[in-house]
Amino acid sequence: MINALSRLDWNHLRSFLATAETASLSAAARTLGLTQPTLSRQVAALEADLSVMLFERTGRRLILTDAGQELLTHVRKMGEAAEKTALVADGQRSDITGQVRITASDITSAVRMPAITERILSLAPQLSIELVATNDISDLMRREADIAIRHVRPDQPDLVARLVREASGHFYAAKSLLARVGHPRTKADLARMDWVSFGDTGRMIDYMVDLDIPVSADAFRVGSENGIVAWELARAGLGVCPMDDDVAARAPDMERVLPDVLVTFPVWLVTHREIHTSPRIRLVFDLLAEALAA
What GO biological process terms does the UniProt entry carry, in alphabetical order (predicted)? Predict the structure, then answer.
């Protein structure tokens, strides 16, 4: 089957992929902008070309057969390659010009965005990128940015949001602090340590109480609205703080505490509804989604 893929019609494969991912002919047809009879004929033609049945019909739903599951693995890779090719081609278009303003947290802006920005500019050399390091979604609403990377889904109806990944992290403390006060063995031990706050202390307390870490406001002796400053305070041995594992890996002076306690947070990509169809905004939006999901 794998060797036969190179001889098949990509339109038929694309129809199969959309049908497999939506489990519905009507939903797949809407996704591809086709009529349902056209999409059904393309899927049937693919089954005929391969001499296998790819779907079983169960009521209104379609269930992949074993052959369909095998094919889906390979066609997904083809689809991803096609999307990347299209992104590269779009980036080279002469009309993809102008500035795109991206807003992200200070830590994301400093740690992740340089490499991502380099990739965007390599694919779309006519663009210019401005980074706005802030955690305030209002910068989008005031049109001070075109795209935002956020950890909370916005509820404004004029914004379009895509969840690109569920990131993970842990609680970290400086090795110097742990050498001084010892390693916490339980959540109660952790709650009794000094803490560094990131922004809203009350929100941090609520989050940790949900994790059964009974920390109190008195534990937060230092903190900052700026994530980079708060992280440096923690690195100076002034308290425990949560951090994305990828960021913490860059700080050998920090140590994970209670490694079984996982901190998870979503990564949302947000833009204006009406400019989501702008070629340059859409290109950067898709490149950001690909990079942040990796």
Answer: DNA-templated transcription
